[in-house]
Design brief:
mainly alpha, globular
């Protein structure tokens, strides 16, 4: 992996990390738009297979599978995510608190642009795939409406049984590799957001370990199934993912209170023009990035052919 490729990968990770900071937005959406989604899922699957081989005490197979994982590619991506979280979390948090409607408008435009680009990745558009997209959009839109807010409320205390931490980790981690879903919001819906925070605040290593173990098991199981599905039913899976992104617009609707509410209201006493303008800006930016990326790829292919 060259230095230039490593830097480009860090930048991709930076964009993914920036998306993960926003409530209701998934880094998986960014990975899909940047064209690295399938590669990411495939590498997660390979890494999980290494762990499963170790558990079975098959060291030889573990070594074989270990070298198949693009570790430098993954490390560069994680480095970019880490930099984004450290550099932008306080900035984005402040902007979300001070200008919730405007920021929601911007993110809404970014997601709409992502939907357009993702739809272009489909190899074949069929009525069945359109039905899958619309069906998943409606279901996820309804699912998000189960809670009026996107943040956990109440005291950060541990009241749930220990096994719920394992289950919550296994379910919430799937949001990491699914476009349109926020892991923290999944915890809110499960009623485990404040529970997990309580375990962290209490330094309860047993419950934290159970949660992390659930994350590992969930990620390993889900990535394997998702990788297989992408290879064998690419367009159908893509249609469902686009539906998830469309459904996530419920969280990104600017009014009321931006990304902190799933309620849908018309603007009343809140900024109207700025959220709409920023939505258009976000849409244009995403499409412009895709055009530039496509031209660069075309130029690279031309050079290779000439060589």
């Amino acid at each position: 992996m060259s230095v230039v490729a490593s830097i480009a990968q860090v930048v991709r990770g930076f964009f993914m990390g920036a998306a993960d900071i926003v409530p209701g937005v998934s880094g998986g959406t960014v990975a899909l738009v940047l064209g690295i989604y399938e590669r990411l899922v495939d590498n997660i699957r390979k890494a999980s297979s290494v762990l499963s081989s170790v558990v079975r005490r098959d060291i030889g197979e573990a070594r074989t599978r270990f070298v198949q994982v693009e570790w430098l590619w993954i490390i560069a991506l994680l480095a970019g995510i880490g930099v984004a979280v450290l550099a932008l979390s306080s900035i984005i948090e402040r902007l979300l608190e001070e200008h919730p409607e405007a920021m929601a408008g911007l993110f809404c435009g970014l997601i709409l642009g992502s939907v357009i680009i993702s739809w272009r990745l489909a190899k074949q558009v069929t009525p069945a795939n359109i039905a899958l997209m619309l069906g998943s959009a409606v279901l996820f839109f309804t699912f998000l409406g189960l809670r009026a807010d996107t943040e956990g409320s109440g005291a950060e205390l541990v009241t749930e049984p220990f096994w719920m931490f394992f289950v919550a980790g296994a379910i919430a981690i799937c949001a990491m590799i699914l476009p349109g879903i926020s892991g923290s919001f999944i915890l809110v819906l499960l009623g485990m957001y404040t529970e997990v925070l309580g375990a962290v605040n209490d330094r309860d290593l047993f419950l934290i370990a159970l949660f992390l173990l659930g994350c590992v098991v969930g990620l390993a199981s889900f990535s394997t199934a998702l990788s297989w599905s992408l290879h064998h039913h690419h367009d159908r899976v893509l249609a469902i993912m686009i539906g998830l992104m469309l459904g996530s617009l419920r969280v990104l609707w600017p009014w009321p209170n931006g990304v902190y509410s799933t309620r849908l209201e018309l603007p009343s006493g809140a900024p109207v023009v700025l959220p709409i303008v920023l939505a258009v800006v976000g849409l244009v930016v995403v499409l412009a990035i895709e055009v530039v990326s496509a031209r660069r790829s075309a130029g690279h292919e031309t050079v290779v052919v000439q060589d």
